[in-house]
Amino acid sequence: MQGLPFHIILSLMMVLAVPAAWPEGPFVTAAWADDDDGDSDSDSDSDSDRDDDDDDDDDDDDGRGNGRGPRSGGEGSFLDRLFGRPSPAPAAPAPQPQPLATRAANEIVVLDLSAADLAALTAAGYEVLGEVQIAAAGSTLRRLRVPTGTTLETALANIRQLPSGQAADFNHFYRSNQGIVPACTGLHCAFFDQVGWVPPVAEQGACHQITARIGLIDTGINPEHEAFDGGRLTVLEIDGQERTPSGAQHGTAVAAILIGSRTGRAHGLLPQADLLAVDAFHRAGRDERSDVFSLVQAMDRLAEAEVNIINMSLAGPHNVLLEQMVERLTEERILIVAAAGNDGPRAAPVFPGGYAPVLTVTAVDGSGRIYRRAGRGPHVDLAAPGVEVWTAASIRGVRTKTGTSFAAPFVTAAAAMLMSARPELAAAEVKAFLQDTALDLGEAGPDDVFGAGLVQFAPICAAPANSAPALLD
């Protein structure tokens, strides 16, 4: 370009600087795709802002900003080539968050290990980090540190080869299913109506005389929140370690859906019920999690307190100790209600929701549409409101919450109402009744998306005392 006369270069610059003027008409109006996320914005998420669900703060999903700078093939790059200027280096991609750990780095948890086998492991370099008595199992639960230089896989295989080492597994982590916190769009009443909730008044008799005791395993709870004024909330302790306490956001929200005061803004489904809560979570840096050592203790603590139902709005990997504890509590007529998880429709089942005895709950919005991040599969039993549900904030006031975590307490409340009216029913029969009386959603009959359908409260009060639910396969 250095050999071109100056007037030619100037002419080229003037042509490039003047944008083309097109007449207005039907082919030049702005248009956005009509997405299926239920909001009225021009993005592809389910909130009411103008951004997508990517991790940057622009309005695209590729991390490049607002598109005003030079781009490949645009005017900026052409002028750079015209005058021999070097093109700017492409922006580095935004750093992606590291995946959270799924288990403790050097720990094995084992139940019912004999004294001889424990002595052999100790001699081999294993260290007992903690041990507690599990009344439901009639044995001792131990947390062992693996010797330096031994992989977890090798350690687990070696322990399971011992005569009393079959009930051993990694110390898996479990996390609350908080999901996203979208914009507020409604009040709790709409969700209560959606499930046919019947207000607890004296005229309804035994149906609302809640005698079933509800257990909750979650993060911390703020008992001073106005949602629990006059309520029957008891916070139980477990033999914990010196760990940083968990926050109170998730646990307070779930507890308020269950027993929030009728006089406050965080109105609960069963404000007169007994709720016994265990904080099994702790903080590790920026991560808030539980582990199987704590979960088994929490489940045992609630069983000792003679609860009838346990709400577990949490999820993690399969673990043999967790599975055995679920089976033991089910045999003791304790129903476990768990969240289906928020890892997306193609994700593998999460646990404890993936275990057969558990009543596993997915989330729908106010129109009965499935929560787009909810887990799916044959293990899903029921659906309940879980998108932008009004409940208590951690310190004061209310806010909306989204996720399968917040759908689970709707089903827990329905189960508590049924077990109070029909105390003779076993856990499996309670599960079958709620499935039989659910409002079918999606494909006809039970399916992998909604399970048997949307839980309904009204049939609980209408059911005759001698009606026997049919157990579903």
Structural topology:
Elements: H1 6-17, H2 75-82, E1 103-111, H3 115-123, E2 127-134, E3 139-145, H4 152-160, E4 168-176, H5 188-194, E5 213-218, E6 232-236, E7 244-245, H6 249-259, E8 274-279, E9 282-284, E10 287-291, H7 292-304, E11 309-312, E12 314-315, H8 320-331, E13 335-339, E14 359-364, E15 382-385, E16 389-392, E17 398-401, H9 408-421, H10 427-436, H11 458-462
Parallel strand pairs: 5-8, 5-11, 6-8, 11-13, 13-14, 14-15
Antiparallel strand pairs: 1-3, 1-4, 2-3, 4-10, 4-12, 7-9, 9-10, 16-17
Helix pairs in contact: 6-9, 7-8
Pfam families: Peptidase_S8
Region (Disordered): 29-98
Active site: 218, 250, 405
| Mean pLDDT reading | 80
For the record, what CATH class of the largest domain applies?
A: Alpha Beta
By CATH, the topology of the largest domain is Rossmann fold
Total number of helices:
11
Which range does the strand content fall in? 15-25%
Percent of residues in helices? 10-25%
E-strand count: 17
Order of helices and strands: HHEHEEHEHEEEHEEEHEEHEEEEEHHH
The secondary-structure class comes to alpha/beta
pLDDT under 50 segments (min length 5)? 15-79, 180-187, 201-205
Distance between the termini: 79 Å
The tally of domains stands at 2
Q: How does the overall form come out from the CA principal axes? A: globular
CATH architectural arrangement of the largest domain: 3-Layer(aba) Sandwich
Largest sheet: 8 strands, antiparallel
CATH evolutionary superfamily of the largest domain:
Peptidase S8/S53 domain
